[in-house]
Amino acid sequence: MHHSPDEPSKATCPAGKNNENKTDDSNNESDKAGHETGPDMMDIKSTHPEEVSGGIFSGENGKDYCNMSRWDTLFALITNQLGLGILSLPACLKVLGLIPGIVTILCVALVTRYTGMELHQFYCRHHYVINVVEMVKIVGGRSWGIVAGIGLLIQVMMTCASAAVTLSIAFNTLSNHGTCTVGFIGIGCLGCWVLCMPRTVKFVSRSGIPCFVSIIAAALIVMISLGVKEPSQAPEGWKVKIELFGNPSFREVFNACLRVIYAFAGNHTFVSYMAEMRDPIRDFPFALGWLVSISTVLYSILAITIYCLAGEYTTSPALGSAPLIPAKIAYGIIIPAIFTTGLANGHVGIKYIYIEVMRWIKATDEVTQNTKKSWTVWATCVTAYWIICFILSNAIPIFDSILSISSATTYAWFTYGVSAVLWFSLNKGSMFDGWKKICLFCLNSFLILFSLFLNGGGLWSSITELLDTFADDSTTVQGSFSCGDNALF
Q1: What parts of the sequence cross the membrane (predicted)?
Q2: Count of structural domains within the chain
């Protein structure tokens, strides 16, 4: 039976894990860790997969979409998070200084882990939701659900637009500006359109390993080349100068912090992935823990190494810090990771639109079926989505600016604010029961205020930076839908 997202919450997830997961060797590991599912360490048992998502993805009369193991989920999360954000981190250390930059990365990682577990805890109480928008709808009603839905689409579309912009930078760098930048952005959007045609998250998870390998290989090429030769823009005889503490302006601090937040901001996809897992209650904390650990280590090593080798000539995206030939090779190698960033975020946004349309036409029983109606709706959603992303990426064709604007508008809320609001909903009436709850009350109150602060100050700093870039006569990209060369060389 299908459950509405407005259905009253249950105390715990239902028990009764069936035997189908016993064939998954990953579920025999770390069983004890699976019970520590949230910030308050609730004792939650596994859920039967057919009860997840109110039956929408459970495969009745169609394909079973609830088929991801913990390792599948980890690779899907890696595909979603390890991508564009990592390319801006070395430049963040150049702005903030080495020590403040490292501290910022570690703090954001810890808070991201905590807010991710808050989403998981809420999912345990409302196991029929299929995306973060439905969680907001449970707490705030239909009106706030609509606001959250619009916010989610803005967020994933901005991320996909930044992927298209990055692809245009790569294509321009490799081809020495072989054609108009608008055309290269179109090629990137077309490739992502093709990748988004499969309908299950399982396909996204299969892109995790190529994505991870391409990022590691590109980063190694840049780091090794900088160890052998000075950055491409450095003068002859240049010696690296590392700032332990930077002296940035308020706007520069804001934009640097927004880019670190962007690098860790994958929370908006967590619930969508939980909805297609076989055993999300036990397996998601495992996948999230490994994701944060891998991201933190990889981000720190890459950011520190590139900044310490390139110094004041560290660029954003970071691959441009390397000498010319290695940088071009790195850009060629990292293209799969950029495409999978578009795939992962595009899939979340497209599936949200798809489900809403199928509900509107009263065809939820065909969501997982291979019918003419379901495929027509899916293909139409994919096409419309990437047309909008193409327009957005040409309207804001500057890599750093599009990261900052997206972080300030929606990432702050979906990474911090929404999770904090969900904590207040879960703990209504018991927020001051002991010192631990009081501390969590203060922390979640801070996260909401921090999200509001990022909205105001972040939008100001990122938009003024974008306008300054457009006004700079030395910039080749002089405005929206510009054919100017955005290559780094």
Answers
A1: 95-116, 144-170, 176-196, 208-228, 253-275, 287-309, 329-354, 375-396, 402-426, 438-460
A2: 1
The answer to whether position 14 is within a domain reads no
Residue scoring higher pLDDT (208 or 98): 98
The proportion of the chain whose per-residue pLDDT surpasses 70, expressed as a percent, equals 80
- Structure-block tokens of residue 47: 């859920």
Question: Is there a domain that residue 33 lies in?
Answer: no
CA distances from residue 475 to 177, 430, 467, 469, 479 in whole angstroms, order as listed: 15, 55, 12, 7, 10
Structure tokens at 204: 């996204």
Q: Which domain holds residue 161?
A: 52-471
Coil, strand or helix at 277: strand
Q: What CATH number is associated with residue 408?
A: 1.20.1740
- Is 457 among the domain residues? yes
Q: Is 425 exposed, middle or buried (0-12, 13-18, 19+ CB in 10 A)?
A: middle
What is the distance between the alpha carbons of residues 17 and 376, in angstroms, rounded to a whole number?
Answer: 35
Which SS3 state, helix, strand or coil, does residue 36 take? strand
Taking CA 387 as the corner, what is the angle to CA 418 and CA 341, rounded to the nearest 5 degrees?
Answer: 55
Residue 36 lies in a domain: no
Tokens linked to 277? 């897992």
